[in-house]
Design a protein that fits this description.
Elements (H helix, E strand, L loop, with lengths): L10 E5 L3 E5 L8 E6 L3 E5 L8 H8 L3 E5 L5 H4 L7 E4 L4 H6 L3 H8 L26 E2 L5 E3 L4 E6 L8 E5 L4 E5 L5 E4 L7 H13 L6 E4 L9 H14 L6 E3 L2 E6 L2 E6 L7
Parallel strand pairs: 4-5, 5-6, 6-7, 11-13, 12-16
Antiparallel strand pairs: 1-2, 2-3, 3-4, 8-9, 9-10, 10-11, 14-15, 15-16
Helix pairs in contact: 5-6
The structure holds zinc ion.
Length: about 270
């Protein structure tokens, strides 16, 4: 990849069972996308910020045709969707994915202080936008993604957003958790989020722990041990039991718990 300096943007890590993490640590979001090749297809979970060509990284690791599945529709997960022909997502975030993100809404994510390493030479912050993309099909709870010799089950885990999913490979115990589980600021206060649904999703994921071997989150330190789900679930229960917020600001309440926090809208108990 040395002949394409913009690809230095990505940090690739190879994990057991052929899981390839494609990180973007040069940006404050520190988002991760995941590539797993089956016998027939390569599954790519999310397409990152779109600041450099993630499809070139994917092509360096697999010659299978790529099926892109979005963990949800937030901008840091759909940036390079347009580079792939086959795209699947949950209907809950489809409006966002179809709309894309215009340059003016990207400014916070393109400001000089958003980066901690040189920006890719092909990225122009004054014109960058995320094109809207449609999906080949929608996926919902219980659907199976069969990539040939490997099957991932879709778990609808809303809360962070309406269309948030997690992917479970039962044979290996791999859970790809999207933005439902990670170290750092977890939140449900943006449009489509729900603290109530988030609580239910965490209870559901915690119940899976006996069959999990590893958790792949979409941000920050990775991979995570399955027991981290318990910490996050228990923190959520403390909040519902009446724990006071550590900070109230801009119509949102933040609750701090060591390596992670939750931010909910102030009226979160009324969330649907
Ligand atoms: Zn998100």
């Amino acid at each position: 990849m040395r002949d394409k300096p913009e690809l230095d943007w990505f940090e690739v890590r190879e994990f057991p069972h052929g899981v390839i993490g494609i990180g973007e640590p040069g940006h404050f979001e520190d988002v991760k996308s995941y590539l797993i090749a089956g016998n027939d297809l390569a599954l790519l979970v999310d397409s990152g910020m779109g600041y450099a060509d993630i499809s070139a990284v994917v092509a360096a690791y697999t010659d299978r045709s790529v099926l892109l599945v979005n963990s949800h529709g937030h901008l840091d997960h759909i940036g390079d969707n347009w580079r792939f022909d086959r795209r699947w997502a949950h209907p809950g975030d489809l409006d966002r994915i179809r709309a894309g993100v215009p340059n003016e809404r990207m400014q916070h994510f393109l400001a000089p202080d958003a980066f901690n390493r040189p920006i890719p030479p092909t990225l122009n912050p004054e014109t960058f936008e995320i094109p809207g993309t449609d999906v080949e099909r929608t996926i919902d709870d219980g659907d199976e993604i069969d990539i040939g010799g490997r099957v991932f089950t879709v778990l609808h885990t809303p809360g962070h957003s309406q269309g948030s999913i997690s992917l479970l490979e039962e044979e290996t115990g791999i859970l790809i958790a999207g933005d439902t589980i990670y170290e750092g600021p977890l939140f449900s206060h943006r449009e489509g989020g729900s603290a109530r649904q988030y609580r239910t999703s965490l209870q559901r994921l915690a119940a899976l722990i006996p069959q999990l071997s590893v958790v792949y989150p979409s941000h920050n330190r990775y991979p995570l041990e399955p027991s981290f789900i318990v910490e996050v679930r228990d923190a959520m229960e403390q909040i519902w039991d009446g724990r006071e917020p550590d900070l109230t600001e801009d119509g949102a309440e933040r609750f701090e718990f060591g390596s992670f926090s939750f931010t909910f809208r102030e009226s979160w108990r009324n969330d649907p």
